[in-house]
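pasting for ref
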Amino acid sequence: MNRRQICTGQGAQGGAPRARGQLAGAVASAAAHASATDATGRLSAETVALLTRAGFARHFVPGVWHGTEGTFSDLLAEVAAVGEGCASAAWCAALWATHGRYAAHLPLEGQLDLWGRSPDVRIAAGLRPSGSAARCSGGWLLSGTWECVSGVADADWLLLAAPEPDEPRLPGGRCRLFAVPAAEIHVRETWRSTGMRGTGSHTAVLDGPVVVPDHRTCSLSDVLAGSPGPGRSRCHTAPAYLGTGLLLCAPALGAARHALREWTAWAARRGAGRTSERATLQLTLAQSADDIEAAELLLGDAALRADSGTRAERDVARNRRVAAAAAQHLVTAVERLFRAAGTHACGGSGPLERTWRDVHVLAAHQAVRRETAAALYADSVFADFEDRPEQAAELPAACSAAAPRFTAHSAPAEVVAGVH
């Protein structure tokens, strides 16, 4: 395939357009295998195949490779639907889509290696810089280990971040992202989690050094910033944190809906026989539904903002704040349901206990940590007032002297650490 064919899509062997009708099959499979997934720590082969067929891996793949170049709003809704059956399956689906967006920053020849035969390529990623990379003729020698690589056992390719030679470790050091075939790594099973067990977020190991050609690498900072470039659509140039947090909350949204449905079925039976408890059960139901619906509204608003094409720092900070708030709403809802159910929810691997574990683990992710999100958002807001002398003059001298000056955080280290 020549360069003209690459640029026009001629010769690419992509499949049919995204088949939304196949989503129902993927949702049903995820739900049917959820208990086994939780026990074994891995998605079933059937669920992996159906999620792929439903188009999650191709969701953000460039159109030149017959990808969907889809929206954050659609992906939020579809991942949440899968999450109602199995949060781990939804998490992997969201990341397969997200990592396709990142891989769109590779040179065209690198994209051809990944998607020349099909856009339905599952990509796992280790985005916390690790390992070592050294220059060699025509490329790089890469070796090392990358922890918490979700879905690594079902990946076709991996995106692995490593510092450039002679660069300091984060913060401040330049890093690159390397695309490596899954056949060249081996998996060290290290994922032993309270919840989200089925994500299989094990350690990827390159005993290496493995040669990675120049066309299969790009700047990590460009990927995280969503830098514009040839062939990149709006979905590829959204800064990482404009969309990452909301998509990582989507599995928790689905899981919380499932928890509410399971709890309601139990509470309806219990309330029918115990009139004295009915008011408490009614309040629990209403408050938990409020929290879940509030999270859904917040995430939907954040998804629309991500789809708008904005790259403004304030919008990125706002979306991160919104995702963290949504995660807290979902934790509050599920925690309330779990406590209200008492021993009914405990002592086994039932759906209410599983969703309780899953939502708490999801909400612990760095990308939706509320303290960090609040600090970044506050910095972006307070910056508007720092350079207004007329307002500063209105403050009493003592207050003005004592008032702290808010400064922007140095984002790279913190951002890279939190993006999955």
